[in-house]
UniProtKB/TrEMBL annotation:
Highest taxon of the lineage: Bacteria
Name recorded for this polypeptide: DUF5999 family protein
Native species: Streptomyces glaucosporus
Protein backbone atom coordinates (compact mmCIF):
# COMPACT_ATOMS: atom_id res chain seq x y z
CA UNK A 1 0.00 0.00 0.00
CA UNK A 2 2.71 2.48 0.97
CA UNK A 3 4.21 4.56 -1.82
CA UNK A 4 6.56 6.59 0.42
CA UNK A 5 10.34 6.46 0.10
CA UNK A 6 11.67 5.01 2.29
CA UNK A 7 8.59 2.84 2.73
CA UNK A 8 6.62 3.03 5.96
CA UNK A 9 6.72 0.12 8.41
CA UNK A 10 4.49 -2.78 7.44
CA UNK A 11 1.38 -3.70 9.42
CA UNK A 12 3.32 -6.66 10.91
CA UNK A 13 6.18 -4.46 12.10
CA UNK A 14 6.48 -3.54 15.80
CA UNK A 15 6.72 0.14 14.77
CA UNK A 16 3.63 -0.03 12.50
CA UNK A 17 2.17 3.10 14.17
CA UNK A 18 4.95 5.19 12.58
CA UNK A 19 3.33 4.89 9.12
CA UNK A 20 1.88 8.02 7.52
CA UNK A 21 -1.75 9.00 8.05
CA UNK A 22 -4.04 8.47 5.08
CA UNK A 23 -7.28 9.48 6.81
CA UNK A 24 -7.94 11.00 10.21
CA UNK A 25 -11.38 11.19 11.83
CA UNK A 26 -10.91 12.43 15.42
CA UNK A 27 -14.65 12.98 15.82
CA UNK A 28 -15.11 9.24 15.23
CA UNK A 29 -11.99 8.23 17.17
CA UNK A 30 -9.94 6.52 14.44
CA UNK A 31 -7.24 7.04 11.83
CA UNK A 32 -6.13 4.99 8.82
CA UNK A 33 -2.40 4.55 8.26
CA UNK A 34 -0.85 3.94 4.83
CA UNK A 35 0.07 0.38 5.84
CA UNK A 36 -3.64 -0.45 6.23
CA UNK A 37 -3.73 -0.28 10.04
CA UNK A 38 -6.76 1.31 11.68
CA UNK A 39 -5.53 3.13 14.75
CA UNK A 40 -8.15 3.95 17.39
CA UNK A 41 -8.21 6.80 19.88
CA UNK A 42 -7.89 4.38 22.80
CA UNK A 43 -4.62 3.09 21.20
CA UNK A 44 -6.23 -0.15 20.03
CA UNK A 45 -5.54 -1.25 16.46
CA UNK A 46 -7.17 -3.30 13.74
CA UNK A 47 -4.67 -4.84 11.34
CA UNK A 48 -5.44 -5.38 7.63
CA UNK A 49 -5.69 -9.16 8.15
CA UNK A 50 -8.40 -8.68 10.82
CA UNK A 51 -6.21 -9.19 13.89
CA UNK A 52 -6.97 -6.95 16.84
CA UNK A 53 -4.31 -5.27 18.95
CA UNK A 54 -5.67 -4.36 22.39
CA UNK A 55 -5.29 -0.79 23.65
CA UNK A 56 -1.82 -0.21 25.03
CA UNK A 57 -1.73 3.16 26.71
CA UNK A 58 1.36 3.68 28.85
CA UNK A 59 0.88 3.28 32.57
CA UNK A 60 0.90 6.61 34.38
CA UNK A 61 3.30 6.56 37.31
CA UNK A 62 3.23 10.26 38.14
CA UNK A 63 1.84 11.79 41.29
CA UNK A 64 -1.70 13.11 41.48
CA UNK A 65 -2.01 16.59 42.91
CA UNK A 66 -5.09 18.57 43.78
CA UNK A 67 -5.64 22.30 43.82
CA UNK A 68 -6.05 23.97 47.20
Amino acid sequence: MCQHQPPCPSADSPDREAAHLVAHFPEQGWSLLCNGVLLFEDTGELLPDGRIIAPHRPLVTGHVTTAA
